[in-house]
Amino acid sequence: MTAPEYLLHRLPADFHRRLENWGEVMRDRSRQSVSPTYEVCRALAKRAGQGAWGSDDPEQEWNEADADAIERAWRLGGSYRLGKQVSAIIRAYYLLGQPPFLICRQQGIRAREFPDIFVRGVEDFQQFVAQMENRVHNSAQSVMTTV
């Protein structure tokens, strides 16, 4: 799901892409499966030299390791720290793929307040994910020891 134009310049672009990737991987039901019959017909057509089967849709590459890291941060407290309304907004937008007008209706917020709440929530979640990744990468330094 692409963000509306009025949100794109306010969202952190790299983290927004990570959250979109997270939503796509976690939704997984949107993946188009390919029937075995189609695969056989496509392989036979390629062998016969029919080029129409050779130009398949480019598969979108998902970074599942990054999506797992975002999901881990979400489950370990990211959604809890954001508050009930903000976590519901982020979940509805990225995981469920709902448009902003529907999220506003469900959450009972004004449409003009949505961008501020949404951007602030994404920035807070980005900060929490950065803290989680810092703890993972510097786990030996994070442990306090008494000497």
Question: Could you name the CATH class of the domain at 14-31 and 64-146?
Answer: Mainly Alpha
Mean pLDDT: 82
Task: Tell me the fraction of residues in β-strands, as a range.
Answer: under 5%
Largest sheet: none
Taken from the alpha-carbon principal axes, the silhouette is flat
First CA to last CA: what distance? Answer: 52 Å
Explained architecture:
Helices cover 67% and strands 0% of the residues. It is built from 8 helices and no strands. 14% of the residues are buried.
Secondary structure blueprint with pairings:
Layout lengths: L4 H4 L4 H15 L8 H13 L15 H19 L1 H12 L4 H8 L6 H24 L1 H4 L5
Comma- or semicolon-separated keywords:
mainly alpha, Arc Repressor Mutant, subunit A, about 150 residues, flat, 8 helices
Short description:
This protein has 147 residues and is mostly helical.
